Amino acid sequence: MTRPSVRDDLRTLEGYHSPQLTVEVRLNTNEAPEPPPEAFNRAVEAAVAGVEWHRYPDRAATDLRAAIAAIHGVHGDQVFCANGSNEVIQTVLLAYAGPGRKVATFEPTYAMHAHIARITGAVSVMGERRDDFTLDLDDVARVIATERPAVTFLCSPNNPTGTVETEESVRAVLAMVEAVGGLLFVDEAYGQFAPWSAAALLDDDRALVVSRTFSKTWAMAGARLGYLLAPAWLVGELDKVVLPYHLDTLKQRAGLAALSFVHDMERRVSSIVEERGRIEVALRELGCEVWPSGANFVLFRPTRPGRQVWQGLVDRSVLVRDVSGWDRLDGCLRVTVGTAADNDRFLAGMTELLEETAP
């Protein structure tokens, strides 16, 4: 039998993977350190009992969109929900990018933006950030003017660097994007940890999308639920490409249940931000290069080769993300902020590993 060939443009493309190992402390995938409250579990159990399994879900996710809209002070027709923020990204690119169009990113940044762009048939074009990983507006202007991308991505706080873009920078990029008839997509998967949100810039006359996820602050990574905020006219176009009934009934109800625990979410965010500060200070005291973070993780470069430190932590049953192979991140690791006890284990391991080579 002659096996069918994958598309020519996908032959050299690799899937997106985050290695999983059996360890006691997992700090490599930016998950919430604790599950939702027990009351949430009871609410979901009650929701399961009321599901009409023989009926298709509400295709428009009307109630969930309305509840999300109420939190953000927008209308339900300005919200689109999907199976995690990655499906949000995919749906926008299917509608506004695709074959013959370009998608711009500024590296280093979240790898899935360029990855999904290629999968949907678009051409990925990349600009460079400054040495401190903030946006270089001159390079942004060059890329947008030269390449005229249909969609431009900004990740803020940026993954894997933790960098938060300023309102002035986002406004400047938005003006550049609109000048070439493009769309600006601001990925705020870690937005609740940051001091401001690009959602404040949403307007019916702006080609702006802001995405969020339930995976981080709402502690629902297992549910795969995300959403975007955008002008109603843009959200309406997404129905042309999204699969029918793509968001199941139970997921919609779980999302609604989560939104009843806003104060719990805010408490979780506050605790993570406090622990993040403790980790940053401790790593600097160990001599590591540490980048300021507005997310629930910290990017750092230890005084020993990153891969050696990563393995040393694994040997101590602590797993962080090795990003040393990423462009411009030579020797770097990224640690998710865990519970206080998890962070103690991580910092104790780092201390042992770095003091082994201290003069």
Question: Layout of helices and strands, plus pairs?
Answer:
Layout: E1 25-27, H1 38-49, H2 62-72, E2 79-82, H3 84-96, E3 102-107, H4 111-119, E4 123-128, H5 137-147, E5 151-155, H6 167-179, E6 183-187, E7 208-213, E8 226-229, H7 232-238, H8 249-258, H9 262-285, E9 289-290, E10 297-301, H10 306-315, E11 318-322, E12 333-336, H11 340-355
Parallel strand pairs: 1-11, 3-4, 3-5, 5-6, 6-7
Antiparallel strand pairs: 2-8, 7-8, 9-10, 10-12, 11-12
Describe the overall structure.
By secondary structure, the protein is an alpha/beta fold. It folds into two domains: 8-30 and 263-355, Aspartate Aminotransferase, domain 1, CATH 3.90.1150; 38-260, Type I PLP-dependent aspartate aminotransferase-like (Major domain) (Aspartate Aminotransferase, domain 2, 3-Layer(aba) Sandwich). Helix content is 38%, strand content 15%. The protein contains eleven helices and twelve strands. The protein has helices spanning 38-49, 62-72, 84-96, 111-119, 137-147, 167-179, 232-238, 249-258, 262-285, 306-315, 340-355; strands at 25-27, 79-82, 102-107, 123-128, 151-155, 183-187, 208-213, 226-229, 289-290, 297-301, 318-322, 333-336. The strands form two sheets. Strands 2-8-7-6-5-3-4 form a seven-stranded mixed sheet, with helices on both faces. Strands 1-11-12-10-9 form a five-stranded mixed sheet. α4 (111-119) links the parallel β3 and β4 (123-128). The longest helix is centred in the C-terminal third of the chain and has 24 residues, at 262-285. The radius of gyration is 21 Å and the shape is globular. It starts with 24 loop residues before the first strand and ends with a helix. The model has no long low-confidence stretch (mean pLDDT 95).
